[in-house]
Amino acid sequence: MKKIRKVLVMESNAPIGEKIASLFLRLAPEIEITRITSPLDLVETARRILPDVMLLDIRLANTREQLVRLAKNASPRSSIVLTANDTGEQYVRRAEFLGADGLVAKNTLATFITDLLKPLKRQPVAGGAPDPDGGKK
After folding, report:
1. What are phi and psi of 120, to 5 degrees?
2. What per-residue confidence (pLDDT) applies to 136?
3. 117 pLDDT higher than 90
4. Residue 131 resides in a domain
5. pTM across the whole model
């Protein structure tokens, strides 16, 4: 995964949007956070800032069926993750239908953001690839 430098947050609930932005800034102050509250601003903002990640409130994304796809076209390299109060099967299907890359419950956003910002850890290759240091440090 590439380093995250820019995040676009579209959240209908201002306090939740503020919490999302402050969590990103607390964990990684170098990240540029752009917050919007209207779906009308999504495509133009995505085109202008080219975010690495877009976190979009599913209620706002749902206002216009093609909104997520239009945002993806405006910024093709962005990962689009919808946020919802519920992540039941109907929400998962809706997120897939809308063209999102993922869906996360709002009550788990802190964990999601923390995991998103963790550097990738090197994992041993399956099959027991030899350790180049011979296991000595």
Report:
1. -65, 135
2. 45
3. no
4. no
5. 0.81
